[in-house]
Amino acid sequence: MGREETLALLEAGQVPERYLRNAGTIGAAGQARLLAARVAVVGAGGLGGTVIELLARMGVGYLRIIDGDAFAAHNLNRQLLATETNLGAGKAAAAAARVACINTDVAVDAVPCMLDAGNAVALLTGMDVIVDALDTIGDRQLLARAARQLAIPLVHGAIAGFTGQVATLLPGDPGLERIYHPAAGPARGIETVLGNPAATPAIAAALQAQEVMKLLTGVGEPLSRKLLYFDTEYNIFETLTL
Amino acid sequence: MQIEVRLYATLRQAAPDAPAGVLTVAASAGATVADLLALVNVDPAAVRLLMVNGIAADLGRVLRDGDRLGVFPPLGGG
Predict the structure, then answer these.
(1) Dihedral over Cα of A58, A62, A64, A70: its sign
(2) What residues of chain B lie within 8 A of the CB of A180, using their CB?
């Protein structure tokens, strides 16, 4: 069954079996909104791999996956898309191949290049939501500027060690300058000391995917003007006000 | 006045005896967030995010008795 056929069924109020376990939460109308949506995932590493997996399973109809990197052995500890057989291969193409195995309702545009000041606006124009799954503070700031310029919601996530944070920046919300103050500080955080163990990006990515789902369906309350911060070393989950 | 200071992640190293990085600090009336960081030996350059009672604040914020100060190092990984 293709996406158009799936959408026709949903418009008639019928939920295909593959989406039955979504229906109680978002309904046929919410599923149709997901299938009609366009989401950019910037970064297909520890955060992005899991975000892509979850959005594809939820049935987000179009994913633009932007990452110019290739898999290395130090990705294997946490990056869902990294395997012993694809080391050296491009992350964006690996993500597209994974989505094709999961859900043929989802169209993927794999973009094998790094986001930069010259291409950001062109690559992100027309998206309904952008996911920040990058791995440096400097790149996140560049992405946030582009999202703000385009007035597209941005779902931010970042991790280090046992800790992670997720925030949804709607157009007009305070931006990353609240989270990373001063803006001109170092481009990397404490992940340079603590590293990124397996479960931490999975937790943050799951929260990011849930934010995308809420934004696209209108169900629930997004983390707008809030920062959800977790420090699982001491079982801390806090929702802070930006 | 008494301020509850909560240190997260790597910043807990500044208070190795404080369970889970939570400590109560005695400070003079009128003390700012920057003053409290000095009292707990945290370098402001290691901090990018500060919260007072769960709301974003800056180094110059004047604290009140009973305030809860959260001190967060930057996370950038993915």
Answers:
(1) positive
(2) 48-49, 74
The single residue listed with the structure tokens 């909560």 is B6
- In chain B, positions 34-53, which contact chain A (CB-CB < 8 Å)? 45, 48-49, 51
Summarised one tens digit per residue, pLDDT across range A91-121 is: 999 999 999 999 999 999 999 999 999 999 9
Q: 3-class DSSP state for residue A17?
A: helix
Contact B76 A229 (CB under 8 A): no
Of B2, B4, B1, nearest to B68 (Cα)?
A: B4
> Fold for domain A37-241?
Rossmann fold (3.40.50)
Domain boundaries, chain B: 2-72
* Contact (Cβ atoms closer than 8 angstroms) between residue A212 and residue A224: no
pLDDT in tens, A56-65: 999 999 999 9
- How far is it, in rounded angstroms, from Cα B24 to Cα A132? 36
- What is the rounded distance in angstroms from the CA atom of residue A94 to the CA atom of residue B33? 47
The structure tokens listed for A154 are 């941005």
Q: What is the mean pLDDT of residues A48-53?
A: 98
Tokens in use for B43?
A: 């370098």
Q: Given this model, what pLDDT does residue A191 score?
A: 96
Do residues B3 and B63 touch, judged by C-beta distance below 8 A? yes
Going by pLDDT thresholds of 50, 70 and 90, the confidence category of residue A130 is: very high
3-class DSSP state of A155: strand
Q: Does B59 contact chain A (CB < 8 Å)? A: no
pLDDT of B19 > 90? The answer is no
Q: Which CATH class is domain B2-72?
A: alpha beta
B1–chain A Cβ distance below 8 A for any pair:
no
Q: What is the ipTM of this complex?
A: 0.95
What's residue A184's pLDDT? 87
Write out chain B residues lying below 8 Å of A186, CB-based. Answer: 74
Q: Is B8 on the interface with A (CB under 8 A)?
A: yes
Q: How confident is residue B59, by pLDDT bands cut at 50, 70 and 90? A: very high
CB contact under 8 A, A231 and B8: yes
